[in-house]
Specification:
40% of the residues lie in helices and 22% in strands. It is an alpha+beta fold and 230 residues long. The strands form three sheets. Strands 1-8-3-6 form a four-stranded antiparallel beta sheet. It has a four-stranded antiparallel beta sheet with strand order 2-7-4-5. The longest helix is centred in the middle third of the chain and has 27 residues. It is globular and about 60 Å long.
Amino acid sequence: MDPIRKSSKATAKKAPKNKPDFDAQAFLDSSGAARRIVEYGRLEKVYAQGDHATTVFYIQRGTVKLTTVNEVGKEAVVAMLGPGDFFGEGSMAGQLVRMGAATTITPTTLLAIEKKEMIRVLHAEHAFSDRFVAYMLARNIRIEQDLVDQLFNSSEKRLARTLLLLAQYGKQDKPQTKLPKISQETLAEMIGTTRSRVNFFMNKFRKLGFIRYNGGLHIDSSLLSVVLHE
């Protein structure tokens, strides 16, 4: 027998089986090595400003508020995040401590991924890396839009946009028309106005049929007209 052909056959027999495709969603939906699923109740602290930054979080269920406090004790709401969102990723960019705090708004289920495991998966699995990069780019665009909204739009339009974002309009095929319980004080912090102004606009939206209170706050898609109106 030809020794070259014999060698090639032997190599073929020893060739490893194809590696199964990596399922990024399955990874994010389950616990495993260096990652764990953590349950939180309403208004529980996930981490505080100044805590050691060693973990990245993925929201499986619920709502999380990110805040920061300046040197004189004034708190600002940085973001409201929901299912499918990551947070705490600053630990991967060299942050040794948390630059802000994370608090649950509703009962929440998180996947806590240790920093080393997150870095390993990003390097090893292109499907996960692509998903994470796409999320971070979209998050950066959202931050830029928030800044433009804060600088140029009225408080009424900012409130309408915030309610629509909380309902995840434009993020998924079927938005959650019923919002998690959120106080008017928190809404005021998010859009940079007073609680009384938020109360005024919420009453106005209700009278116009844009929102309704029935076992919670329900958002109608017609609220878009406030954002789109020049």
